[in-house]
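Here comes a specimen:
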Amino acid sequence: MRAGFDFNMVGSLERNHLHDTLKWTARTVWGLLLCSILALVSAYIFSNHRAAVLLPFLFVLVIVAIAARYGVTVGILGSIVSALIFAHMLFAPVHSLMVDNTTERASLAWMVLGGIAIPYLITPGLRSKK
């Protein structure tokens, strides 16, 4: 058995790196898709509800749960995408990203802030799960 450098090792390392990258990408996309679908369903259900302004505060729990499962990156992207969905579908004027009411705008801002900060605090590492 000879010690030294073997070109087959490079190919194996590159394959492992590619496999890990694809696995991370699939987990991130799946988590972001799940967060987006739940935001769409929640916005549709609560669109005519009086307490719709509280939905972003409650949705932080969903974002944190998904981030705990799929990684911090999903928490960050999920909170941003969810805020865009809520601004577009839930708050007046509907079908616009502009939000007229300052309370609703503040609710969205707190959701984004919580969706970014809380996953960093509760997950054991600052990196996304592998």
